[in-house]
Amino acid sequence: MVTTIARKDLQLLFRDGRLPWAGGVVLVLLATALLVGWERRAEISTERAAAQLLDYDDWVAQPERHPHNAAHQGMHVFKPDPALSVLDPGIDPYVGSTIWLRAHLQSELTFMPAQDATGLQRFGELSPAWVLQILGPLLVIVLGFDAFSSERELGTLRQTLSLGITSRQLFLGKALGQAMAVGVLLGPAAVIAALATFAGSGAAIGDIAARLGWLFLGYSLYVAAAVFIVLAVSAIVRSSRLALVALLGIWIATTLLAPRAASDLSRVWYPSPTRLAFNAALGADMGHVAEEVWQENFGLSTQWSPELPLDKWGLALQVDDHAGYGVMDRHFAELWDTFAAQQRAQEWLGLVAPVLAVRAFSMGVAATDFSHYRDFSLAAERHRRVLQDVVSADLVKNADPRGTGHFDYRAGTDLWQHVPPFQYTPPSVAWAVGHTMRSFGVLLATLLASLAAALFAVSARRAA
Fold it and tell me: How many CB atoms lie under 10 A from the CB of residue 330?
């Protein structure tokens, strides 16, 4: 009986044109977003790989010079574009892709694509993830807003129930019919998206397949929750017109307005410092620590005092840099912990607006969320310290013994090659999934709550 009801509803959706037309529009948008994402990733991956090689070649090929001057020039490292950025670019367009590794200071990602975009960028990046997160629930509304209300208006609902069909069977049949309708549209799209992700990815097939599986599961929970919410409203509201209006209101509130409101609320609950305030606090703390280590190691209370002998400059650079490592680690950790707290707050608000939870889950699995940005930044900072330590050690060994000729010392290719090329291995899928369990749990709770609401609505309407 359940499958019979499902087949009947599916046939009706084909006959009245809603499934072909509404689904066709969504499929065209998905195909367009997928093509745009595939071309974008192919171009970006090639550019970043080439830039990484060229930048290191420039480092090695630089002329003979004082090592500290070379450290100030530094080098640039580029964040690899994840394979699943084809489906969900996440925050990558907003945080940049390049970090400058230079002496003394830890840098942040720069050259954000969003800086070069138009005002439309504020509405999000066109991607398959965006289409599913924003237009997916709208498609479910168009297909199912009259699942119960139209039959009530036509008088067929009472006749169906009089045949001995239970309200639960009717509900399950209609839910299955909606799921089949969505599956007819999104099933082929999911296969094409998987093939596009594998094509030219260069990553481990097993890792990509696992990430795709988790993405499929997460979006299935999201769409299923939308189906149950639509059926609940259709069952409880008296007319199809009122059901459509109510569902569109819910969609606007939870999908379009909620993300911006959640972002503002998270910043109120967990305020982050401005760049100016952050740099001022970091500089002040580094100055205090520097005073202590300079007094302890050289008996001086002022950094780079003329009283410091030139045969101690290399050692002073080494001591000064190492003293700042802990300060930078603490300040950046506090800043990033604040961002992480804001993200957690938004994920919990996903209990009210599921799009917040599925967005966080999708970015996490696709390796385009803040946790992956933080992991790359830490890897880049470790490499910066390797560069800095190599240069300082060479100064202590070869420049300090020259005394007043300290700044006449020149190093060449042999030293530059001691700094290895930057190699970054992104975290595994297990690491990524572990960091998304909160959002996955919120999605699961939303699904269970919407299922309970739908069952209650169907039973209450029959009792009435």
Answer: 12
Annotated domain spans of the chain? 2-463
* Four-residue CA torsion sign, 205, 210, 213, 215: negative
How many whole angstroms separate alpha carbon 170 and alpha carbon 151? 12
215-270 pLDDT per residue, tens: 999 999 999 999 999 999 999 988 999 999 999 999 999 999 999 999 999 999 99
**CA 239 and chain centroid, separation:** 40
What sign results for the dihedral spanned by CA atoms 123, 375, 209, 439? Answer: negative
Token couple for 255: 């999908």
Helix/strand/coil for 64: coil
The strand pairing partners of 100, in sequence order, are: 76
On whether the CB atoms of residues 7 and 177 are closer than 8 A, the answer is: yes
User: Is the backbone of residue 159 left (phi > 0), alpha (psi -120 to 50) or beta?
Assistant: alpha
Structure tokens at 431: 């690491």
* Pairwise CA distance, residues 36 & 88, whole Å: 12
Instruction: Please indicate, yes or no, whether the overall pTM of this predicted structure exceeds 0.85.
Output: yes
φ and ψ at residue 242, rounded to 5 degrees: -65, -35
Cα–Cα separations (whole angstroms), residue 134 to 112, 122, 221, 302, 438? 24, 14, 15, 57, 21
Residue type, 249: G
**Nearest CA among 49, 450, 9, 13 for reference residue 233:** 450
Alpha helices in 299-412 (DSSP H): 313-348, 354-365, 370-394
Residues 6+ apart with CB under 8 A from 351: 357, 442, 445, 446, 449
Q: Is the dihedral of CA 313, 315, 321, 326 positive or negative?
A: negative
Dihedral sign, Cα of residue 302, residue 306, residue 312, residue 313: positive
In angstroms, the first-to-last Cα distance of the chain is 23
What tens digit of pLDDT does each residue of 344-355 get?
999 999 999 999
